[in-house]
């Protein structure tokens, strides 16, 4: 009887590995295509062979040529804007999540409803009028202007609010009886218990800003202020000729940073999202 469950376990494990490899094929193809000549990328698709994935010729010229276009500067811009967004956005999300979960004031639930509606509305629907306001106050072609749209993230607020609701209120009341201010309660009681949700909220802010395309396209008209996704789209020449090898190399660079962070911090993200719906 014991052999059957073991056989089933091995079978399901093999099936899981096969499914995982199928999902990984686009990523593997992107990686190998960034390391092969442009003329070879689509040369082995009819019929499909092992050379469709594994290059005949390996080369780093695509990456060298990509960095020669100024793409490295755009990656640095993306990193600066993302760090600003994640840092300031986390501070705002923590303060807002604490306010709508712990503090008692008129209209608290209405305010939280606005936060929920905020991340339910597609950003593309408000990006154009919002960019016009940013231009009026002179924040175009600035790092703060690029980071502005990602600061008030409703999902990050929701995530932290749901976790804060699960912390016994008696802890805050005890701290208040000892004379602690609400800011001290947040710093000394709630934040030490919220490491996982804070990391998850930070990941949300980071990924949202790192992959942003429309907003940087609207508010960064100076080529020196371009971020990675916009610079990647700009690799298409005016004649319409596309160097797919450089495109794949750029996509690889843009994927490495968030993928690495997600793999490193995924346990915090998954546990925080799963716990966010336990309290209402």
**Number of spatially distinct domains:** 2
Highest CATH level, the class of the largest domain: Mainly Alpha
| CATH homologous superfamily assignment of the largest domain | MetI-like
Contiguous low-pLDDT stretches (5 residues minimum) are 276-280
According to CATH, the fold-level topology of the largest domain is MetI-like fold
Task: Give the ordered list of helices and strands.
Answer: HHHHHHHHHHHHH
* Rg, alpha carbons: 24 Å
Count, helices:
13
Using the 3D structure, state the CATH architecture of the largest domain: Orthogonal Bundle
Envelope shape = globular
Largest sheet: none
Total number of β-strand segments?
0
How much helix, percentage-wise, in residues?
55-70%
Span from first to last CA?
45 Å
Integer average pLDDT: 82
Strand content: under 5%
Q: Structural class, please?
A: mainly alpha
